Amino acid sequence: MSETITPPKNVEDASPVVVESPRRRFLRRFRGRRAAVAAAVFLTLITVLGLAAPLIAPHDPLVQELSARRLPPLSEGYLLGTDNLGRDTLSRLLYGARVAVSAAAISVSVGLAFGVIPALTAGFLGGRWDALLSRIADAFLSFPPLLLAMAIVGVMGPNLTNAMIAIGIVFGPRFFRVVRGAVIAVRENTFVEASRSIGTPTAWIVRKHILPHTLSPLIVQVSLACGFAMLAESSLSFLGLGVQPPDPSWGRMLAEGREAWNYTAWPVLIPAVAIVLAVLACNTLGDGIRDSVGRENRSER
What we know:
Blueprint: E1 3-5, E2 17-19, H1 22-31, H2 34-51, H3 53-56, H4 89-125, H5 127-141, H6 145-156, H7 160-187, H8 190-197, H9 202-238, H10 250-257, H11 266-293
Antiparallel strand pairs: 1-2
């Protein structure tokens, strides 16, 4: 909420000064970035359509109709056509959105669990803890993200759950770096030193003073990670390490569409466009959030 500060009585012709709360300032800035707002609406739409897929899908995504193979979009009874086995592309696309959203949510949650708590420990305590945990994070960061995820899935077995866990483990060191840097920047502030001097428990200081100051950069990183999670899940499913047939996912649809590429391009183009738009929306939303939580520009004062 906004607060009104009344100046001293001896100040003549002075109007009250309205101090804008951080939340209202963020919403005002974010609403001014139309691309980020459109990205947020698009991602919300994907989430709703994915969750409601069993209710709104016109056909069963697993049922094969060999007499209706490779139909183009706008065919009778098939709005986006059919694939090489006669399955409805629209239904599989909706169920694939459900997989993409689940992959982003679960993998980011796993990444936060692996990254945030060690980062708070390393950043606040420093010393040996910081050196040890930072070296572990550096070891994971030295591997290419997708290659590391493929190695983890290869050990755990190819399925959607293992793919999401693998992607989440890849996110952990990146969240660690972001949160650790924010904690180090805050821990030497006066209000933290004052809490320490009066004997405030460490857990209370971390929860009340340190953690809130890490949320802004962490939220930006999470929004960007969602896009990478969707792309990584599609890549793993395309390679046969994620969603297994006949279950639908956008990456699986791409792999199956290659078989019909010489006959029609629609089975490949439709899921490819869905992946591109979803990842682009996540990145655009992340940029909008980053600009909205940043320091105020001169033009906005």
